[in-house]
Every structure is written in C-alpha cells, then in structure tokens.
C-alpha cells in the first residue's frame, strides 16, 4: 500500500509525492491543477499523511521524504521533525528530508502519529516555510491470535437433555483491525467433546448433540478453538476449555438390594418400639434420592414403617403389642418409592421396588395376667367380719404356668387369700366411706419379680341404720300474749342414710306431749313441720322454758324413728308482739360477753409488755453501773481560750512543758515565701506529739488498771490526746504587724490546705477580688 506526501506551494499548486519505498533518486512528478478561487495564496506547505506497514523489524526503516520546492540542492536547507514520537520513534535526515522509523511499530499499541515538519535556512537561521502538520498511520497486519477473555468457562445442563439444547456460548476477541481484511474475523471449532457436543462456527454457541446420563458420567471437558482470517491458511488460533457438568434428574427409582430381611422383637416390647431398619438404594442424588417406605402387605396390622429422611432408611416399628403364646412369627412386605417425581419422569417409576420382612417374636417371662382390667364389687354395710366380697383371678401367660399369690395394698378392711377370694376384715359403715379404691397385686411364686396390679373398687351398700334428726339447732321463742294456733317455728330433718327413693320424713309429738301440751305440730308432708301454740297466754315468770319431744320417722325399710327435743323460750314481746325483741336481747348479751373477754385480753397484754419494758430498763441501768469510769471527765488539763490572747508565747495560764521531755519535729527549711512557709508549718504541726517517760508511764498505768478491772470490756480502749505543739514558727497571724498589704499577698494556697481552711480561702479570696 502506497502513501503520498501532499505539498502546497506558495503559488497554491498542489504536488503529490510518493513516499513509501521512495529513494533519493526518485523523480518528482508535478501535477498541475488550476488554482481554485477559494484558496488564498500564502507562504506555506502542508503534509497530509503517511501509511506505514506494522511490524517493521529492521533497525532503521525508510518511510518517506520531505522536500521543499525551494530546495535547490545546495544543502543550504535543514529539515526538522517535531511532535510526539519525533526523535524516539521517527527521525529525519536534516539535509535530505528522508524520514526513518527507528523502533518497531505496533498498531494495537498506537495506530496514529501526528507530527510537524519545519525547513530552516542554514545561512540565515530562519524558517523557509511555515511549520506544517502531517499524520503517519500504521497499517494492520495479522499479528494477534484470538483470545477468550471470560475464562474459565463452566456450565451446568440437566442430564438426558434432548439434542440441540443450549449449553453455553463462548466468545473470543482479536486485537487486530476488524476493518482490515479478515484479520479479526473468527471461526469456532470443536477440538474435544464429540460426539456429545457441537459448536456453532460463527457464534461460539455450544449445544448438545447426544443424550447423556449423569449416573454414567457426570462432567465433561470440551475444548473450543477460535481461528482468525475465517480459518484461511496462515490464520492464528486460540483455544479454551469448558467444564460442562450434568445436573441430576429423577430418572432412577429406588431399589432394594436385599430381597429378604429377618428381624426379631421381644413380646414385652411396648408399642412404638423400633425393631429394625431396611435400606433401598437410588442412583440419583439430592432431592431426587429422597424415599418413602410403606407397608404393602400386613394382615395383622401389627407393624408399621417410617422413613428416616436424614439417612433414607426405613424404620420398622411395633404398632401393636405381640404375644409369643398367641403368635410367634410374622411376615410383611414393604415397598419404597421416591418422594418427588415430576410428571414427565413417571415413566421411570411405574413399578415400585418391594422386599419381604420376616419378624420372629421372642419369648420372655411375662407377669401374671388378670382376667379383667379392673374389678368392681358390692357389699352391704354392717356386714360381719369375714363376709364374702368377691373373687379375682390371674394366670401366668407363659408355658410353665406358675402359681399366683395375691395381695391387697393399702387396705385394713379387706383380706384376700391365695385363691383370689376377698373378704371383710372389719365392719363397714357407708356413712364413713361409701367407696374403697384398692389395688390387687398378683405375684408369680416361681419368679417374685414378675408382678402385675389392677384396680379394685368396692362399693359399700346402704342399710337403714341412721334415724332422721333435726337439720339444725333451733332457737324458738313464744310471746306471753300469744294466741292459740299461732305458728312459732318451722322444723326440717335430715338422714345420713342413702335412700333408693327420695327421703320422706314424718313428724309427730310424743305421747306425753300429745296428751298434755301447750303446743301442737302439723306435718307439711314436704319433710317440714310447723309448731303451733295450743293455748292462749304464757307466763314468763312461772314457766320461762318449755321442752317438747318431736318424733321423726323415715321411709326406710325397716323404718327408723328418732326423738328430738325442741326448746321454747317464753318472751316478753311488749306492745310489738314480735319475738325479734327477745332475739335481739340474746344477741346483746352474747356481744357483751365478747366485749368483756376482749377487754380482759387487752389488759393482760398491757401487763405483759410493761413487765418486758421494765426488765429491759433494769438491765440497761445495770450495764451503766458496771462501767462508771466511762462517765469521768479526762479534760482537767484542757483550757479553752475565747480571746486571741498574746499569741503562741503566752503560756502563763498553764505550762504544759512539764509533761514533755522532748518533741520530734522535722528539720525546718529556709523560708522562701509566706504561703509556702505556712503550708510547711501546717504539715510539721501534724507530726508533733508526746514522747516523754511521763506519758508512757501514764499509759501503762491505765493499761494495768484496765487489765485488773473485772468490769472492764473485753476489748482494747483507745484514748486519743491532742496537743497544740511546742510553738508556731509562722509567728502571729494578726494583720496588724504585717508589713505586706493584702493586695500584694496571694491566698490561693489556702484552697490546698483542706476543708478546714475553706472558710478562710473564701473570705480572703473574695476580699482580694473586691479590693482589686
């Protein structure tokens, strides 16, 4: 491919100059064209573009020549090359204007170079022509192979997929120029993966070409090749690998590998007991391998199968208890099927796999077995001791038929013998206990550990052995002025016996009260009766009380009668004529009695508490007398001064120096400032204390006195003595003799001396602030 150099002269006549493969001896052919009216005549020259082939491997490759029309060949012109790439990628012969490429050009790295050219007159050093811009384009060659940029490739496709199913699309790219021939036109082919896969040549789409079974092979490696130049000779190629995995579909049914299972179960096993497991196998995986087990044949309905969904095992469980003596072996058939089967795959699961299970029952020594689950007997109350109640029976279900021994638990009223006969051991009273809930225990004599128990219920039947009686205690009153036939009381009765029919009571007066009585009775025929006066007028003084005997009979067989006494009080009802006045008086009397009792209780309580307080007071006074020295005043040598006095040197009132032989003080440092000196003296004063033989003697005497005193407390007594000290090194605190004014002194240090100096710090600090 040729490139041309376009020059425009001052006269505006363009010149085309071949530059590719041109030599210094190449002749220049000028093509004259008419001057166009819209072009202005100017001094300048313009370079269009060069086309340079890519992948030039020579050290210095000639590209073309630049030559001014003013150059007469006397070597007076100098050509210069400017712009990106000038000097590093391209150079120019300054005398001839020939352009050379000194580096290998790669279109994929840079396809275009924009440069500027300039012609300089060597004699004058000035530019002959204006600077002109031109372009060098790098033409493409097929030097890049196709590359798959999205590697690695992996695809998943269901097994047994039909032919033509899309798997994945692979795409390669070529860095060559797609507009330059077929350098970037790719063609795809399959190098590995036949006969199960195919690839579309132009798109790179991989499709299934044959059905595949995951159980035979679950993954495939496919190699795809991409060639540029549509596969023509000299084309470059690239390959990639694609991992294709087959996902599982439920195309296999579960199958029992064992056609017969043998299991055993003990006859003593409770219902729900697991007696064994069965196992089927499925070549599928995951959800497609989940199975459900079930019983297909079991006429006895004794067993069941449940599925363990974690292990996919079938667990045979006992649905009903088994008895060796009744049946010692069973035969059942179990089947298995998948839990999830899509409709389109039902053709693979038309017939379920089955297996046969033989179950042998093991004999064990069983406890005795009662004929009935429980027994209910009836017996009349008041029956004599040893009366017959009933018979229970239990047998040994095993073949050896062991004899049985019976017993009754938690009962002192009934007995049972070895034959199971139950008799009474005490008299029974239905009114005390109408039912007895007992437990009968049967024990094998050959094996006393074999025990069974059942409940026994004994009902005590009623006989009429209790006569009726008043349902409550009656307080009956009659007024002195009561007339004949007046109702003064209604009575009712109860009977502790149980009656088959409804109770019915009959009320009558005794024979004595009927012949000579001031009262009469009328039976209401509803288990109640009314008491009426049989005369007019009663005298409270002569006859305050009346006692009448009332006969109450029941309807039992035989009928029983009781005599009940009713007390009648004669009452002075006054003008009201009502017995409520008498009832109120009785209530007041009873309440008065209760009030007196409460007052007596309160007085006794006060006496008891007073005695307790008095005892506590005497004990406290006795403790104070035992320790009289605690009240002594040890402050004989302490004097209190309410005035300022003459300062620290005033010791005429009391000389305490006699009590000290020496004092311990820290070495006093040189005084620097008033505030620092006062703080130092404050710390020193805290370390001054007694250190003389007189004080030691005094303390020892007190210690000896405390040790010999029998009334002294059993603990050490600590006595604290405070002394002012030997003197104050700070001098007088009075401000009268101070040579320094308060304004010149800072009292901030008072805040550092603790809470005792808080007041002074507040006073002096506020005073200084106010003065300022």
Automatic annotation (TrEMBL):
TM helices/strands, residue ranges: 597-618
GO biological process: adherens junction organization; calcium-dependent cell-cell adhesion via plasma membrane cell adhesion molecules; cell migration; cell morphogenesis; cell-cell adhesion mediated by cadherin; cell-cell junction assembly; homophilic cell adhesion via plasma membrane adhesion molecules
Cellular compartments annotated: Cell membrane
SMART domains linked: CA (SM00112)
CDD domains in alphabetical order: Cadherin_repeat
Residue span, Cadherin domain: 68-148, 149-256, 257-370, 371-470, 470-581
Secretion signal, residue range per the UniProt entry: 1-21
Presence of the UniProt keyword Cell membrane in the record: yes
Pfam family for this entry, one: CADH_Y-type_LIR
SUPFAM superfamilies to which the protein is assigned, alphabetical: Cadherin-like (SSF49313)
Taxonomic superkingdom: Eukaryota
Keywords of this entry: Calcium, Cell adhesion, Cell membrane, Cleavage on pair of basic residues, Glycoprotein, Membrane, Metal-binding, Repeat, Signal, Transmembrane, Transmembrane helix
GO CC annotation: adherens junction; catenin complex
GO molecular function, one term: cadherin binding
Topological category with respect to the lipid bilayer: Single-pass type I membrane protein
InterPro entries: Cadherin, Cadherin-like_dom, Cadherin-like_sf, Cadherin_CS, Cadherin_Y-type_LIR, Catenin-bd_sf
Function of the molecule: Cadherins are calcium-dependent cell adhesion proteins.
Annotated protein name in UniProt: Cadherin 19
